[in-house]
Amino acid sequence: MTEPAADSLRLPAGTRAQQQWLLSLLPAFPLVLLVLRLWYLSRQDLATMLLLVQYVSPLGLITSLTITLVWVLPAMVLLIRVFGTLLLISAPSREDARRSLLAVVTLRMPDWAVVIAVLLAAITWQMRFLPTLLMLVLMSVGLTTWLRRGDDRIVLLFMGTAVPVASAILAYLWLGPAIMAAIRGGETINAVLLGVPPAVAPVLTGPIPPGVARLGTHWAAVAASIVAPFAIGVLFMRAPILPDTAIEATAGAVVTPEATTVTREAVTPAGDDEEPAVEVWRGRLITVDDSMVTLMDADGRVRFIPSSAVRSRTLCPEAEQVPSSAVYVQGWYAEDTALEWMAPKQRRTEPDPRCQGRPVRAE
Fold first, then answer.
1. Could you list the residue ranges that cross the membrane (predicted)?
2. Interior angle at CA 228, CA 225 and CA 229, nearest 5
3. Which of 33, 251, 255, 257 could form a disulfide with 277 if both were Cys (CB 3.0 to 4.6 A apart)?
4. Residue where a domain stops, chosen among 213, 237, 261
């Protein structure tokens, strides 16, 4: 099968209108996410939200969004490529397939974009999801071979069967001990994620029956596009966008210090020369200037601490996700990404007493 002609890339009128709407709404999605994140952080209080809008850096918001959702972009590119190519080779006719925006986007997608998506996924996906990445790559290669070289049986046999089978064998030689460890440890999900994708890849590199082609590709992509924004929003709503800080300040100096859940402890040292009692406030640091430190506590209440009353300040580490797996793949922890494995990490030291609500001067 030859490369699609330029005429086949033209959108029907209805599909063209859908594309224009999609391109108009797509840039607004990150902006909506950023606004909702501030609304969520402010506990739905308008005054607090306006304060955050004034002081929170847009670059900080974008950075948080990028780090949190960097794995989503390659997943979208690979799924669009796989589902679109599957629709193109399985639909009763090319005219029927190009009624779907999915098929036209796939035809217009350059190969280098797919390669970049694969490389990005390889370093940002957790180890337990890399077999799924291998499956998607093998599917994309096999289905693209059907689309471009569908009349060459030798090439189809090699790219659609021989390569996936050989890849599965190599994958199981590498993943075998980890799969057995997951089974022995009762980690069913990890055993499935590590063991199933290489096995099913060889049977997913060809067309499906024309009668279910549109249902299994176009409408599956539509359903995913409806669910994905909500899933992405839930993930980003919990991403930190302000530093977690503990401040040691003179007792009573904090404006509106009536919080009931914020950690605080007053200490008055014994002796003839008594020092003013101090208390510790922990929360998200909003801004610091010459006269005031603005902090948001765990309940979303904003606290104003005079700079003259601040004794000391420290950054507190973010709470790490509790590991849910004991599986290692050739020394690589199943829940780590290649980026985490290669990049340097801060060494954990003794916890700062201020992060635990205790002043450093406490005896």
1. 21-41, 61-89, 101-123, 129-147, 154-175, 219-237
2. 100
3. 251
4. 237
